[in-house]
Amino acid sequence: MSSRWLAPYSWEFITAQNAALCAAKKALHGPTKEGHSACQQLWTREHAKEMGLVEAVEFCRKCHQATPFCFYNGNTFAAVIRDVIQQLPLSEVERTTVRSMVGHIVAGVASTEEEKEFRLFCTKHGW
After folding, report:
1. Which residues neighbour 4 within 8 Å (Cβ) at sequence distance 6 or greater?
2. Distances (CA, A) of 18 to 24, 45, 80
3. What angle do CA 92, 95, 101 make, to 5 degrees?
4. 51: left (phi > 0), else alpha (psi -120 to 50), else beta?
5. Cβ–Cβ contacts within 10 Å for residue 118, how many?
6. Chain centroid to CA 2
7. How far apart are CA 13 and CA 21, in angstroms?
8. Beta-carbon neighbour count of residue 4 at 10 Å?
9. Which is it for the CA torsion 28, 33, 104, 61, positive or negative?
10. Angle between helix 92-107 and helix 112-125 axes, rounded to 10 deg
11. How far apart are CA 86 and CA 112, in angstroms?
């Protein structure tokens, strides 16, 4: 099932999320010269489209890899997709497990097995 998983998260929200993460760690919050503009355009153009949940996670990973901010890009986009997972009708154990998996996938540190299991999980649920 496709959905507009990321539609509630505007670029302004993404920027505020990154600013909050940076403030909590006393890190510089700001755009990068290399990736900010392109990522902002990509997010603004694509985030509200219907996509499968696997696609939404991959989109967040792609945005993380674009490095739009000086710090905490992975945490920023992982926080968004974890919030999406938090809202799914899952048991608390499933929700916790899947939130961890998608965080690893977005950050680019998931094992092949984690990614495979996440895809199977989404297929099982029709997402």
Report:
1. 48, 49, 50
2. 10, 20, 11
3. 145
4. beta
5. 20
6. 16
7. 12
8. 12
9. positive
10. 130
11. 23
| DSSP SS3 for 79 | helix
Q: pTM of this prediction?
A: 0.96
> Which domains are assigned to the chain?
11-125 (1.20.120)
Question: pLDDT truncated to tens, each residue of the chain (127 aa)?
Answer: 889 999 999 999 999 999 999 999 999 999 999 999 999 999 999 999 999 999 999 999 999 999 999 999 999 999 999 999 999 999 999 999 999 999 999 999 999 999 999 999 999 999 9
Contact assessment for residue 105 and residue 115, using Cβ atoms and an 8 Å cutoff: yes
Residue with tokens 């996938």: 105
